[in-house]
Specification:
Belongs to the diphosphomevalonate decarboxylase family. 40% of the residues lie in helices and 20% in strands. It has 331 residues and is α+β, with helices and mostly antiparallel strands. The strands form four sheets. The chain has a six-stranded mixed sheet, with helices on one face. Strands 2-5-10-11 form a four-stranded antiparallel sheet. Bound molecules: adenosine-5'-triphosphate and the ligand C[C@@](O)(CCOP(=O)(O)OP(=O)(O)O)CC(=O)O.
């Protein structure tokens, strides 16, 4: 059994250079959370044949099953094994809601499947493997802050594949961050992150400029983390996320994940700043808002966003651990 937590990108991954290898256009940087764990167990069946997947207690079918089977095929190929797998996975995070379920999901699956098929991989190789399931999963192998290298700048896709993994990045001890999650809508999105980023790269005139500016955002973000400058970390994260959403809004046809309630939460975040609280918003491909603040301010931020979405729809997260095997056994 493997355990992994979602991660929320402060510098977003949005857009692939290669779909098959899941190679991103840009580097990205995230914080792994200490809430919403996914647990995944992989057992091997007798012979070859279709994999069986139980997802949150229900037999999986369609795209969710297909993505897991494609991933297991990759693991089998690397291990030189052919047995089918029986997978049981359970998310505590809402699935497909823009709260990084694919990150915790494929990080846990990578760890559990590698163990079940006898692949001995270190954290870096597990990160490369998890990337093939879902790009953002590469970062959930690591706790705290993690940087996923795009591999751009290498001469070939093979070389990019070899160096596109995540690794931990330094942050000042004094930073003491929290991410206050305001759940606007826990339901699954209509358009997956995968499809939306494909459409954005293919059609949005704003995509190129955002990707170019993201490199500068990343360099500034790393320096701000090392300084422990939460205001700068937050400002950079907020502009990077809003810029990502701008690229989607300019896609043809537009992709819009932000809802009226999202914008009301964003207003509450601006109000908090006016009142002197360092609070900054980031959104993934969904309507839900994550507010970066100091841990000491988290209760105040939770109250303010709870007034919009309801107190029971607010979860306060801190930096969490990397993915790991729970039982040390063969699954
Ligand atoms: N535990 C899991 N095991 C395997 N696959 C999962 C798991 N959880 C989610 N997924 C896959 O990830 C898909 C959702 O991914 P998607 O990236 O669209 O949304 P998200 O991760 O919730 O949002 P975002 O990436 O914007 O934060 C699901 O439909 C399913 O295919
Ligand atoms: C907005 C994001 O959350 C997009 C995540 O996209 P995915 O990692 O879910 O996409 P695939 O690689 O196609 O599975 C930003 C981020 O997590 O960096």
């Amino acid at each position: 059994m493997a355990l992994a937590h979602p991660n929320i990108a402060l510098i977003k991954y949005w857009g692939k250079r290669d779909e098959g290898l899941v190679l991103p256009v840009t580097d990205s940087l995230s914080m792994t959370l200490d809430v919403y764990p996914t647990t995944t167990r992989v057992r091997l069946g007798e012979g070859a044949g279709p994999d069986e997947v139980v997802f949150n207690g229900v037999s999986a079918s369609g795209e969710a099953l297909r993505r897991i089977t494609v991933f297991l095929d990759l693991v089998r190929e690397r291990a030189g094994r052919t047995q089918r797998a029986v997978v049981e996975t359970r998310n505590t995070v809402p699935t497909g809601a823009g709260l990084a379920s694919s990150a915790s999901g494929f990080a846990a699956l990578a760890v559990a499947a590698a163990a079940a098929y006898g692949l001995r991989l270190d954290a870096r190789e597990l990160s490369r493997l998890a990337r093939r399931g879902s790009g953002s999963a590469s970062r959930s192998l690591f706790g705290g802050f993690a940087l996923w290298h795009s591999g751009a700048g290498t001469a070939s896709l093979e070389e990019a594949d070899a160096v596109s993994y995540a690794e931990p990045v330094a942050a000042a001890d004094g930073l003491d961050p929290a991410l206050v999650v305001a759940v606007v809508n826990a339901g699954p999105k209509e358009v997956s992150s995968r499809a939306a980023m494909r459409q954005t790269v293919a059609t949005s005139p704003l995509y190129g400029p955002w990707a170019a500016s993201s490199a500068a955002d990343l360099a500034e973000m790393r320096a701000a983390l090392v300084r422990g400058d939460l205001e700068a970390v937050g400002e950079i994260a907020e502009r990077n996320a809003l810029g990502m959403h701008a690229t989607m809004l300019a896609a043809r046809p537009a992709v819009r994940y932000l809802s009226p309630a999202t914008v009301t939460v964003l207003d509450a975040v601006v109000e908090l700043r006016r009142a002197g609280v360092a609070a900054y918003a980031t959104m993934d491909a969904g309507p839900n808002v994550k507010v970066l603040c100091r841990r000491a301010d988290a209760a105040r931020v939770a109250d303010a966003v709870g007034a919009v979405v309801g107190a029971s729809s607010v979860v306060v997260a801190g930096p969490g651990p990397g993915a790991r095997l729970l039982d040390g056994g063969d699954s």
